[in-house]
Amino acid sequence: MMADESQKFEESSEFDEVKADAAGDAEATADDAAVTGDEGVVELSELDQALLRVAELEEQLARRNADVYNVQHEYSNYVKRSKADALAQYELGKAKVLEGLISVLDNAHLAREHGGLEGPAGKVVEELESTLSTNYHLERYGAVGDPFDPAIHEALMHSTSADVESEQVQILIQPGYRMGEKILRPARVGVVSPE
Questions:
Q1: Can you give the pLDDT at residue 75?
Q2: Is the domain defined by 139-195 classed in CATH 3.30.70.1130?
């Protein structure tokens, strides 16, 4: 029985310690009553609430400013790409039209070589060639004796000779055409190489 009483005493003293701790916590909670509510949530003064709201609004403003900045840069890049694409499409369109005229220019060139392009028709062709050269930078190229360049010549024949020191055009089969630096049609040639 004594053991039971001593056990009860130990339990009651432990209970009293827990009770005292709880009372101390209650006093601390009472001191913080101005700051905390019933559910343990911190209540802020009106000034603190206003400062918190200002901080939230500043963060939202910074995010929106970053979004506007990104959209402005995306739009600027879009405009640059659009201008570059438009210029590329314009150049492609010019090249397509000029490629369609190459056969007409070939026939005019052959007629001129054979003396069949004189009078008013010859003047029209000369004006056409002049306009294409001036406005569209269309140039006919390729001549016998030019150094052979596989980037601008298409070799259809090949021979060797001791009379030449480097590969060159021996026969011009069909002239080439370029628009500025763009090759519209390579010159078709016969090439001669040194032995």
A1: 96
A2: no
Residue type, 105: L
At residue 50, the pLDDT reads 92
pLDDT (0 to 100) of residue 40: 64
Low-confidence ranges of the chain (pLDDT < 50): 1-15, 18-37
